[in-house]
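agent: user wants the structure for Arginase family protein from Hymenobacter arizonensis. delegating to structure tool.
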Amino acid sequence: MNLALFFDPLPDTLTAAVPAPTTLAAYATRFTETFPDWRNADLALIGLDEWRGSAAGPPNPNRHGANEVRQRFYQLQKGTGTVRFVDLGNLRPGLTLEDTYQRLREIIGALLEENTVPVLLGGSHDLDYGQFLAYESQDRAICFAVVDARPDMAEPGPGTPPEESHLRRLLVHEPNFVFSLAHLGHQQYLTPPEVLVALEKLHFETMSVGELRTDRRLAEPLIRQAEFLSVDIAALRWQDAPGYYPANPFGLGNEDATQLCWYAGHNEQLSSLGLYGYRADLDPHGMAAATLATMLWYFVEGFYHRRPETGFGTFRFLTYTVVLPGNPDKLVFYKSRRADKWWMEVERLGDNSVKRVVPCTYEDYLNASQGDLPQRWIRLQALLG
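agent: tool returned. relaying tokens verbatim.
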């Protein structure tokens, strides 16, 4: 597949200067005159400037959000390992918004086939629908996570911007290939109660901004289970990321956002990341661009710290079996000897041939040790059924 047909090269203002030898710019292969060899890359950056799905309309065309973030990102110092990072340039939008979704589907699908992780940067949050569609060809149920100030579950229709209904569209897509969803960072005062009730009935996990900021570590298993992550910059408070509309003084801090990206980078099964919603014309001092560049840096650095966690029940893991008084009569937990990470074995009741080992927390193990079934086990049992 000739991906170059879908992209515009980066402007000279981003690539003309000779990069300092220790910065990421010196290690990234960027699309200027020759399209990068994406098949042999670990990570591929894709700039987006598609806003037809936004309620606020397009930003100032003279300020390309992805390019503003690149300006900051490529000045950062290279981290660990041998970086194989390509920048494919900026995606040319399709004739219609639906065409753009389909372009993303094809491009991301091609990258996934070569085990190259796409990183999508810019555009309205509904573009994660194209990110989602790329997984349909994998012919299996997938897990994904969304970070946003509210679940975008409005009823689609005339007058409803796609960015306000894209999550609903993902969940009702046919064929349905969603196994689980984790929604992180929602703000109670922005979220209709019936939306949270609907997600609970679907046995999906949610974590409010307050819960996440109280203990970020509780978000780690949710991200570790995800195969793709979609982040709306509107989940961050305006003071830390003044680059979205409408402004909101509450939300995640920049430290929270970078920690979530660090978790995502570490997750060896996460195969795509989308950072959406940044409007450069609302960011006069570049604060949000710097925040997004740092989030991207933490994702890349986390990626090069990946260590496959396989072989449950072998010497690589400590195994803990908790005896329970009811049904099930026991739960099996695994803890990595290398890192402070826990997993839980979930069998479908009455059919031990259906089994999954899922990320969990140490608190889940403690609850089981006290005779209480973890909520995570109960949700997974419902999903397996």
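agent: one observation worth passing along. DSSP finds twelve helices and 14 strands in the chain.
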